[in-house]
Amino acid sequence: MTATERRSMGPVRRAIASHPIASYLIIAFGASWALTGLLSVSLLFGLLALFGPTVAAVVVTWADGTLGQLRHRITDWRLSPRLYLVGLGVPFVVTATAAILWQLAGHAAPGLGSISAIEVLIFVLVIGEEIGWRGFLMPHLRGRMSLPAAGLATGIVWSLWHLPIYLQPGQGLAAFAVFAWWVVPFAVVMGFVAERARFSVLVATVMHGAANIAMPILLPSVDHTWTMLATGTIYLLLAGALVVQSRSRSPQSSVAPFNSTEVAA
Description:
- The chain has 13 helices and no strands.
- With 265 residues, it is mainly α.
- It has a domain at 78-247.
């Protein structure tokens, strides 16, 4: 977007375009947190809250002229099947490893569980988050920092976005801390997969959804706190291994960050 085009914008659009990450965070958190506050009224508001990051990503990319790039990340499905298998498989391998550790600690085998219709629905609807997290935020951060740092920053934002859920009755900050222990290293691992997949929202959705269903399937009878801490620790070790491996290679980005010179379509 040229300086002339930027000057021709209205003041709100110009402010959003000038501060894309801050604008994204304000809109994503504001929309989702407002809807999460209505969970006591209906679960539907919680499902709608999943799309706060999408709304934010669309508004910001419309404002700064990169909406076409966002649309490409959403619809770019022509990737190697291995990337989809990695996205689906990594959460199940990590959770299966936790199941083995559970048994090595002297507990009975957890067996196999099942998932509910709402969990299947959420598997699909997390695309509302991923359009924002891996489709918008991480590519923007990647243009400013290293891949591990971008994944870490995305994970911190991602965990804080969930905070209102843990302020509901029956939750609490201790439960939030356990969740953050799981989601932040998972975000770093996801970042490596996402960059390899050109930040495809579809691959990210598969990986995010798989992480949500792997635990009830492979660790159905295990204490949820133990499950989150154990799988979070495994993700932390995996993230560390990926960081070490990445530093042994010459640094380069496999995908260009958002380019504000593109005219919105």
